[in-house]
Design goal:
Elements lengths: L15 H15 L12 H8 L3 H13 L3 E4 L3 E4 L10 H9 L4 H25 L2 H16 L3 H17 L7 H20 L8 H12 L3 H22 L5
Antiparallel strand pairs: 1-2
Length: 243
């Protein structure tokens, strides 16, 4: 079962026209419009179709090649690389993947990524967070409490998890916060919509916050791990793998 959901904002903009070409070609490649290991239509046809110059098209191809999506070969053309060669944690690729429909396997992989990173991040945040960072987590929690729509809840939930990652004060995790943010927005949008009460996870978030506030790293780790385990169970119960 494929589901098209609200996609995270992409990070690549470039110049206005150049950015539009990158976005359009990226969506087509990730969405399967151009099959893996096949060559794109020739430059002349693509330029006509997209109404752009060869220079703009070639610049866009360079951007997508850097993301692992395309490979330009002399005298052959531009080939679509296989998915195992894509930079799957690139925020743009995540956004394009979500915009073209996500399946059970994709959601499972996102959940596994979170389970590897976020519990340990919560433990680190419990010992590393500043007063200001704790307040950011608390503010996100308050916004979750007052959310009256699913959209408001998803945004506040995203802010909560991102604030926890930032509270680790680990410079290597800081860029990861933005990448995981793209994944979280996709995943949270599905789990909130498949829940009878989209606020049912609020007490679990409160427990994570309390552990971080009290500077209890092991408790923070276990609370976050338990919450993510519940998320995985919810996905497994509501979304069946493709057959």
């Amino acid at each position: 079962m494929n589901r098209t959901i609200a996609a995270p904002h992409t990070t690549y903009t470039g110049r206005k026209l150049h950015g539009q070409v990158v976005q359009e070609l990226g969506r087509r490649v990730v969405g399967g419009h151009y099959p893996a290991d096949k060559v794109l239509p020739n430059e002349e046809l693509l330029c006509q179709e997209l109404a752009v110059s060869r220079t703009a098209l070639r610049e866009a191809v360079k951007v997508l090649a850097a993301k692992g999506l395309l490979e330009a070969r002399p005298r052959i053309g531009t080939r679509v690389r296989t998915k195992d060669q894509w930079n799957l944690l690139d925020p743009d690729i995540l956004a394009w993947r979500c915009a073209t429909g996500v399946d059970a396997d994709f959601l499972r992989h996102l959940t596994e990524l979170r389970e590897i990173i976020e519990p340990s991040a919560a433990a680190l945040a419990a010992t590393s967070r500043s007063t200001e960072q704790l307040e950011s987590i608390a503010q996100a929690l308050r916004t979750m409490e007052t959310a009256s729509t699913i959209a408001q809840w998803v945004q506040a939930d995203l802010e909560f998890h991102t604030a926890v990652l930032k509270a680790t004060n680990n410079p290597l995790l800081m860029p990861l916060a933005a990448i995981i943010g793209s994944a979280l927005e996709s995943l949270l949008g599905v789990t909130a919509r498949t829940s009878d009460n989209f606020k049912q996870a609020l007490p679990d978030h409160q427990k994570v916050f309390d552990a971080i506030r009290l500077q209890e790293p092991q408790n923070a780790l276990h609370r976050m791990a338990g919450m993510l385990s519940d998320t995985r169970s919810l996905i497994r119960a509501t979304i069946q793998p493709d057959t």
